[in-house]
Amino acid sequence: MPLPREQIKTAREHLLEDGFCILDSALESPFLAELRDWSDDLLRKTKLSPKWKYQGSDIHISGIRHRSKRSPELPGDEIVDRLIEYPAEILKALNLDDHRSGGTFQIISKPPNSPPLYWHQDWARWDDPISMSPWPQQIFLNWYLCDTNTTNGCLRVIPRSHRQRNELHARLVAPHEGGGYDIEEENEWMFFDHPKAVDVPVEAGQLLIGDARMLHGTHHNASSQKRTVLLGWYYRRTNDVPNEWSGDIPEEIIDRDPDLPFKWNREPGRYLT
């Protein structure tokens, strides 16, 4: 699925500068239809947990050839392998082919008349100087199975928040370890109408790529139809400077101890300026 060179160039610039980009016509119609049928079938068979109130469904499926090492107990499906491998040419064109899938995709489907998803970011290495990298170390790929807009729960982002601190970073509840399940809809900061926030409506078949450090959420789904996206995570397997990188490199990364142990921390610290 070759994409125009100019679209690729613009997309990479947006990803590096703003923290996200959108690629048109990335998913071919036959595969899009197959993914809709597959996800609809799993959604029909899955009882939604009340703790998924804000996100919608959160169904994790592993590949078979690309088996999840972190969660080997997950059910596997060959269609996930195809989905993982599908954007290989796009990632290569964007100089992101050093990222590897974590081996799973999530079916995230916001039901009709469901609340917004709160502001959050998904990076978990904030104690590591690599957090300052001007290139992405971890990305998410969102494949949208329907057109999205502000009525049915489209994505909202705060551009450049992957590398620039703002007032939300110190006030947000860390959602991933369960804190997000108990957030009240009246929470002033988790649902704050930030002046720099932008809506990101996406058409079915488009691909959105985002930096894990970027603050993002969604609008509520006020429509009468579900809104489904397939989410996959891709990670760089090294902390070295990418071979193709020709831009500036922060001193903190140049001086980084290559044997620095991994420490899990989702709260931005001194490496977010």
Q: Please, could you describe this protein's structure?
A:
With 273 residues, this protein is an alpha+beta fold. The chain has a single domain (5-254), classed as q2cbj1_9rhob like domain (Jelly Rolls, Sandwich), CATH 2.60.120. Helices cover 18% and strands 20% of the residues. The protein contains 5 helices and 10 strands, in the order αβαβααββββββββα. It has helices spanning 5-18, 29-45, 78-85, 88-93, 251-254, and strands at 20-23, 59-62, 99-110, 117-120, 138-144, 155-157, 198-200, 207-211, 216-218, 227-236. It has a 6-stranded antiparallel beta sheet. It has a 4-stranded antiparallel beta sheet with strand order 4-9-6-7, with no helix packed on it. The chain starts with a helix and ends in a 19-residue tail after the last helix. The model has no long low-confidence stretch (mean pLDDT 94).
Question: What labels describe this entry?
Answer:
5 helices; 20% strand; four-stranded antiparallel beta sheet; 273 residues; Jelly Rolls; six-stranded antiparallel beta sheet
In angstroms, what is the radius of gyration? 18 Å
Strand content: 15-25%
In CATH, the homologous superfamily goes by the name q2cbj1_9rhob like domain
Largest sheet geometry: 6 strands, antiparallel
Lateral arrangement of strands in the main beta sheet: 1-8-5-10-3-2
